[in-house]
Here is the input.
Amino acid sequence: MMPGIDGYETCARLKADETTQNAVIIFLTALQSTAEKVRGLSLGAVDFITKPFDPDEVVARVSRQLEVHRKHKELLEKNKQLASQLENDLRAGSIDSAGHHEKISSLIRGGESDRLEFKSSLRWNLKTGRSDKGIEKAWLKSVVAFLNTDGGVLLVGVGDDGHMLGSAVDQFENDDKYLLHVNNCIQQHIGLECTGFIRFQLIPAEDKKVLLVECQPSPSAAFLKIGKNEDFYVRVGPGSRRLSTSEVLAYMTNRKLEP
Here is the structure.
């Protein structure tokens, strides 16, 4: 409620700036409604402390968020190392098409779970034979749920029964345009602040290619942003569940990132 630029705008600007987008932001305010708290979380804040406050509670909450931030940095570094290793392997030719196929086949054989989900297509409705925003929302919802829970893997181009459909069903002109669409969807509907926890690539499998999306757990809340709506999802078994406003606040307050 600061004059001029309020706390929400301050938070939004910090998260939009590349030099401060990873800053840990905690709101300290007299506002107490659940809607106000979730609004702060949706902008990238990690906690929300209301006045009057107990100094010991503030210290405890700050200490906890510093520990979460440390784990966040470790996860980010691990993600970069894995991506770098994969790129080096591909350049060196140590991963061939058979290796890719075996990796995908192994995942499919395990079936869907809280850490693995299959989607038939990226944007194409196989029943109507046309592009469908609902199909797009479905896989983005899964990515958000993985980010908010324990991470996981999404395979696009694989039917619910494990049948390989491939990326060609989405009718893109080439692989580059397919991957550009994936990147644009993530940035537009999930946000730049989460891109460090999402790694995706097209992997050969049989005579097709499937999209492999690997998600690390995000230390801050991830929301699916469609128009003016911002929805929060978590993994529950082999599916995703949208939480209500009050459930989001309780979940993020109690959530812990495992090392």
In short: The CA atoms of residues 189 and 225 lie 5 Å apart. Helices lie at 7-16, 34-42, 55-92, 97-110, 133-148, 175-189, 245-254. The domain at 97-254 is CATH 3.30.950.30 (Methyltransferase, Cobalt-precorrin-4 Transmethylase; Domain 2).
